[in-house]
Amino acid sequence: MPALGPGSLQGGTDLEKHRDLLMVENERLRQEMRRCEAELQELRAKPAAPCTGCEHSQESAQLRDKLSQLQLEVAENKGMLSELNLEVQQKTDRLAEVELRLKDCLAEKAQEEERLSRRLRDSHETIASLRAQSPPVKYVIKTVEVESSKTTQALSESQARNQHLQEQVAMQRQVLKEMEQQLQSAHQLTAQLRAQIAMYEAELERAHGQMLEEMQSLEEDKNRAIEEAFARAQVEMKAVHENLAGVRTNLLTLQPALRTLTNDYNGLKRQVRGFPLLLQEALKSVKAEIGQAIEEVNGNNQELLRKYRRELQLRKKCHNELVRLKGNIRVIARVRPVTKEDGEGPEATNAVTFDPDDDSIIHLLHRGKPVSFELDKVFSPRASQQDVFQEVQALITSCIDGFNVCIFAYGQTGAGKTYTMEGTPENPGINQRALQLLFSEVQEKASDWEYTITVSAAEIYNEALRDLLGQEPQEKLEIRLCPDGSGQLYVPGLTEFRVQSVDDINKVFEFGHTNRTTEFTNLNEHSSRSHALLIVTVRGVDCSTGLRTTGKLNLVDLAGSERVGKSGAEGSRLREAQHINKSLSALGDVIAALRSRQGHVPFRNSKLTYLLQDSLSGDSKTLMVVQVSPVEKNTSETLYSLKFAERVRSVELGPGSRRAELGSWSSQEHLEWEPACQTPQPAARAHSAPGSGTTSRPGSIRRKLQPS
């Protein structure tokens, strides 16, 4: 067993020698590679710049590309060689570790064998001494058999001691047997370790062979690349020499050209003698050019004058923006296109024109006389729903910051108010686009704020306020002052729905639209017979500071003003028209009182003006969209609408205030909107009217409103 140690050490020494040889070979290859790269750099630097259009330039470029590819392959082979070196280093470390473990095992076995040998020698000596002592004991036994009882007792003690020694000998033999078994297992372990060492040596030999093959392949590729590069360099040098010979030939041909230039120079000298004549002709030409330049300057002056007028218009728009910041009601006008319902003939001609340089001016031809009106913005019939919404979206987003915002559409019947506010499913209007914008803004601020958006819908029909989303749409509601002393108005019993997606918006709009009152008249096939209000409440909580904001967005689609003689209203339609005109007249009285800064403003003369009191009393940002018809037969209504719009534009309400506070909402207000986010049913009414029972509408319509 001790002889295994030197053999293992000798194996480890051989592996170290192999590793050293591989490292020397690797270093030699690296030096040779660097030398080859230096030669390639020299060859690259030697060739002169090829001439333009040389037939060998393309081939030279291809050869350079191939040389770069070969260099990339050499770099890859270097990487493979480094990986092989790393693998050899790892296997060498593993072999050294195995050798250390084998040395430790051999040392332990040697110590164990030495200990067992000592114990075996002690056991043999004990056995030999016992054997040497046995005959006298037997002899004493035989000779003392007839002696006294004392001798008999001594004999018994000797026999007991002999029995004890025999047991010890048996135990020593058992220990010796166990030691022999341990020695045998040590021999087996040594054999296994030798097998592992042989396997590692074979693996190192195989890796060494693979590395030698890779190095030989790299050497061959390197030599081949050097030979090809050298051959290409020779070809390029030959081409350069040929180009040089061509240049020399060209130099020889330049001598006739030089003689030609000399002749030209002599001709120029003769022309200089007639320079005064040429100068006069040049002066004439310059005068003509100066006259043309003066004409161009005059044209530029006209262009500058036009730009100056345009700048005046821009300055006017800036002044209008300043007026808006002071709190004036913003007014925009939208002209609907001429439709086939307008008929044909002189009455269906277009009576509205626009200023091409100022989008806030609209011209109306009324009874042969042009009348101009200046508003904040005018949209032509070509304007899309998105164009109109872009004008009001900044106002809508301020609702998220805690401001009250009101947008209402005004105009005669059939002027397009409902289309602007509601639109169609394919091309929605301000209402749906406003809620979509609010959702996108809420999602962008979701990391810092928590928002809740609730929607209510109501209509004022024949001076009666009705809930379009309630279980009893025909039930009349009243307007009350908030009991918290804030002076704000609210409608007890008005149903609120919490909306969380565009699908919820569509369901609410569909349900509210089915409950709104519309009828056929001579002016409009689907005439709105009531004032529709969409109330959007946005409550927000700043997650970091606890700041709470409450903003309200009122989107109002007013019923169309109409003349009874034109609309052909009779019976209930006549009563509806009378109530509509009365409420719009009350709105005109409120605007007149605000414009003249009267002490008393008659908000309570109509349910419409009373409900819009918050939006018209300085605590809200308000915008009016006036819808007008462009045809000749409606010029009287268009003239009245535009005059009313100008009066509304001159009303100064003052800047809107933001509703924000630190702390939590009151428990009553929390209870009013919290159930809407827990259940799909409408929020509980704050003050239910006495006698109100369960809904009488079909359950399928209610299920449409359940949030998904």
Automatic annotation (TrEMBL):
Annotated transmembrane regions: none
UniProt-recorded Gene Ontology molecular function terms: ATP binding; microtubule binding; microtubule motor activity
Cell location: Cell junction, Adherens junction; Cytoplasm, Cytoskeleton, Microtubule organizing center, Centrosome; Cytoplasmic vesicle membrane
Entry keywords, A to Z: ATP-binding, Cell junction, Coiled coil, Cytoplasm, Cytoplasmic vesicle, Cytoskeleton, Membrane, Microtubule, Motor protein, Nucleotide-binding, Phosphoprotein
Gene Ontology biological-process annotations: microtubule-based movement
InterPro entries (UniProt xref): Kinesin-like_fam, Kinesin_motor_CS, Kinesin_motor_dom, Kinesin_motor_dom_sf, P-loop_NTPase
Domain of life: Eukaryota
Region: Disordered, residue numbers: 657-708
Topology in the lipid bilayer: Peripheral membrane protein
Annotated binding of ATP, by residue: G411, Q412, T413, G414, A415, G416, K417, T418
Domain Kinesin motor: 328-651
Gene Ontology CC: one annotated term: cytoplasmic vesicle membrane
Coiled-coil intervals, chain numbering: 19-115, 162-228
Family affiliation: Belongs to the TRAFAC class myosin-kinesin ATPase superfamily. Kinesin family.
Function recorded in the entry: Minus-end microtubule-dependent motor protein. Involved in apically targeted transport. Required for zonula adherens maintenance.
Name this polypeptide is given: Kinesin-like protein
